[in-house]
Design brief:
The complex is a heterodimer.
Chain A (H helix, E strand, L loop, with lengths): L4 E3 L2 E4 L5 E6 L6 E8 L3 E9 L2 E5 L6 E5 L5 E5 L8 E8 L7 E2 L3 E5 L1
Parallel strand pairs in A: 2-11
Antiparallel strand pairs in A: 1-3, 3-8, 4-5, 4-9, 5-6, 7-8, 9-10, 9-11
Chain B lengths: L2 E5 L2 E5 L4 E8 L5 E7 L5 E7 L5 E3 L5 E5 L4 E6 L8 E8 L9 E2 L3 E6 L1
Parallel strand pairs in B: 2-11
Antiparallel strand pairs in B: 1-3, 3-8, 4-5, 4-9, 6-7, 7-8, 9-10, 9-11
The chains are: A mainly beta, B mainly beta.
Chain lengths: ~110, ~120
């Protein structure tokens, strides 16, 4: 079965713009989480959604937001982009019966 | 709060030699433990995990890890390194039986395999 799918894979934005990233979880998975990966801070948890509700949130400013749709697909949005937002954004999903978290290939965001 | 420490941000091994990557965690209760591998320009791939039961866990690509509660460790080993093992490895923990899927990661260890 298909894995976690993230789009777009690569994008370049200008400071001050906003960006939306998309994630389709593994079929049947209702839990979707987002992580930011940077050389300096490593892998950091952004937030998690389950059944269209935010269940957990990391320590990121309000410029970072997300949502989940009824088909479990999720989007994350970053507004007023800063240079420091340049990172690999990873989406992960987990099924209800398992405790394994599966990751997508990520979306590479460069802010110039 | 949980935390994960990976000793050594870079490890260099010769092809055919033992690979040993160290991971220690801090948690109020024994967590679920994971090792992920990341190849260049790719996402994270699960190598193995420990939740309950046998403390020696075997994963993909010949890797294994042992959970030692008394040492709060979950070190990853592979008896014989292959060139294809060159990648970055992340140890991660999650709260057992938690409803969510929040992982706390270590800083990662980049493995270089010399021919």
């Amino acid at each position: 079965k298909a894995g976690v799918t993230q789009t777009p894979r690569y994008l370049i934005k200008t400071r001050g713009q906003q960006v939306t990233l998309s994630c389709s979880p593994i079929s049947g998975h209702r839990s979707v989480s987002w992580y930011q990966q940077t050389p300096g801070q490593g892998l950091q948890f952004l937030f998690e959604y389950f059944s269209e509700t935010q269940r957990n949130k990391g320590n990121f400013p309000g410029r970072f937001s997300g949502r989940q749709f009824s088909n479990s697909r999720s989007e994350m949005n970053v507004s007023t982009l800063e240079l420091g937002d340049s990172a690999l954004y990873l989406c992960a999903s987990r099924g209800q019966s398992g405790n394994t978290i599966y990751f997508g290939e990520g979306s590479w965001l460069t802010v110039v | 709060a949980q935390s994960v420490t990976q000793l050594g941000s870079h490890v260099s091994v010769s092809e055919g030699a033992l690979v040993l990557l160290r991971c220690n965690y801090s948690s109020s209760v024994p967590p679920y433990l994971f090792w992920y591998v990341q190849y260049p320009n790719q996402g994270l791939q699960l190598l193995l995990k420990y939740t309950t039961g046998a403390t020696l866990v075997k994963g993909i690509n010949g890797f294994e890890a042992e959970f030692k509660k008394s040492e709060t460790s979950f070190h990853l080993t592979k008896p014989s390194a292959h060139m294809s093992d060159a990648a970055e490895y992340f140890c991660a923990v999650s709260e057992p039986k938690a409803a969510g899927n929040k992982l706390t990661f270590g800083g990662g260890t980049r493995v270089l395999v010399k021919p």
